[in-house]
Amino acid sequence: MAASQAFLQLDPRIQRYLWAEGWGALRDVQEQAIPLILPGNQDVLVAASTASGKTEAAFLPALTHLLGQPDEGLIVYISPLKALINDQFGRLDRLCENLGIPVWPWHGDVTSTSKRKFMQKPTGVLLITPESLEATLCNRGTSIAALFKRMTFFVIDELHAFIGTERGKQLQALMHRIEIVLGRTVPRIGLSATLGDMGLAARFLRSSCPVAIVDATSTGSQLLILVKGFEEHPTTGETSNKSKLEAERAPLAIAQHMFKILRGSNNLVFPNSRREVERYTHLLNGLCEQAQVPKEFWPHHGNLSKEIRYETEAALKQRERSATAVCTSTLELGIDIGAVKSVAQIGTPPSVASLRQRLGRSGRREGEPAILRGYVIEDALDERASLETRLRLDTVQTAAAISLLLENWFEPPAVHGEHYSTLVQQLLSSIAQYGGLQAAHAFRLLCTPPGPFERVSKDAFAELLRTLGQKEILTQDHAGLLLHGRVGDKIVNHYSFYAAFTSDEEFRIVSGGKALGTLPVSQIMTPGQRILFGGRTWLIEAIDEEHKTIHVASAKGGTPPLFDGSGGRVHTRVRQRMRDIYVAQDALPFLDTTAQRFLGEGRKTFATLALADRLLLDHGSQAILLTWLGDATNEAIACLLMSHGIQAFTGRLGVEIHRAGHSLQEIKNLLADIASRPVAPVDELLTKAGNLVHQKWDGLLSPHLLRQSYASSNLELDEALDWLQATFKSRSYQVSSDT
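-> structure tokens emitted (739 positions)
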């Protein structure tokens, strides 16, 4: 072990362990983190690339601090995944056994005997999920002070997976509630590989005092990228089995290329949906059968059983045979699957941050490059080709994401949002913890700084209590003590209560009583909107939010809409980079010949339609407002239009506006008028909006709080108004047909 000040600060027993394990030197992230964490008197945010030694950067100094205490202490490690807990147990158990420190995994699969042993002597290292920690506070309220009395650190792994989510707000609340019981702050160590804004991430870790930051994300390793384009020739109407096969030539060609390139090594393949995971796993293993070679391709997504997921993870870890996982984001996080040679992304990546996280799995061995293979499918051009097809949007969006990745930019964490849904859960949980709460005590606990819901006002909290009382979620006794109501008691006593989030739900698409399939929906939808599904255009007739069903009828005539319900929320920076790529003339070196042709075709359409200087496009019964802004800003503009009686929806090019007889100039005049006025209250903007219930307990909110919650998390109203004002004050845009 090369001499270093950080190494010399570690406990001698840990030093001897590292020597015995053959460590030649501490890594950069460990050198930086150890002196900051060791005193145990401050919060520390540690950002470093995947497999850079972040876990050891936290635990080597934290364990040294623990060993230096006069009494046995406790480190609480919080993970988003049970599988990650199991991995960390394997990594820590041998080290801690040498130190005489017990390690306690705690989740749904751990035996009650092990949990009882920890309860009898709560010292060492506790590895736990937010849901299990929630259950502990909820069900063992009187024991919390004793359980966590000797706690020295919170260690939060994969911090980026929590920021801006219901689980993240839950995690903030759980740590705060424990500190309230203890009457002191507990140092928090956040670990992450992907953080777009270190300052925002630090404020998420703790907003009330400074957080020390270790940023060791730049590895300097070689990166190899190739994006291959594939052209599809879609069929229309009734198709024979033969023509259906022909219509899937592009996916088969992609599978054949991956079969040729990936066999014989470990890799990760990321399609953009569970359905596509199943499709490509089937195609790849079919090719294995045809070639009479052993199966090398394994599926991994959230709907699979635990046994199947573990089988895939085990296949990646063993060294005797090569294995490639075809997976969703379930393998983005830090589950130890060993080194993979390359990462393949099929279709546009959900975000630049997601692409970076996925790529971090590759190039982990000394001297090996990180390898990214992208695959884009574009429909062949003909006289019926849509504007989206002619612009080659998938190719350009993929190129934009990669170019931003190469600049080391990725989306900043979304830390705004009032999260009333999670406040409902934390209120019910706190009442269980304390056996009842006065309303004023509950507000001080959860909503007074540095509480996790400090953005919630007294008036909003009072409205929440009234609504929960009306729904029999809460009740008050004669002394004013808040207790669980008849319905609330059933909710809290069900095992599903401890999770702050729901599994991704898809809306059923039904036409004339016949189910057509399901569609993921992440934005506002209203009757009268048109959507693409199964290659056809449908008109939304009604939305049944309670049963997650959209009733549609076949849309006659008109140009197909650009919205198809798929994909993640796109950031403004990505859309603006797409526009830059269209305007530029240079070739992109990471595109193959076909993808480069797609880019050229998209640029030609962009130039022919003069889209760099267009504001509004005539798109049949629709007009497209070309904003080149992110989805949250486009949705805000759509809401502003709807509040003025114009139907509008977000699309991949901007905002799609139902003209209803209005000329393009009239729409432009309306937008200019909107830009000149103060923004209407959120209740007015969202009064006609459907599909606002996105978070687990949103259905228990009043209409007013539901709209406030949705807007705070999903709409960028300030950016929308800034764009409208700048657009109509500084530039004179043209309006044009897209034909």
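Residues 237-246, 562-566 have pLDDT under 50 and may be disordered.
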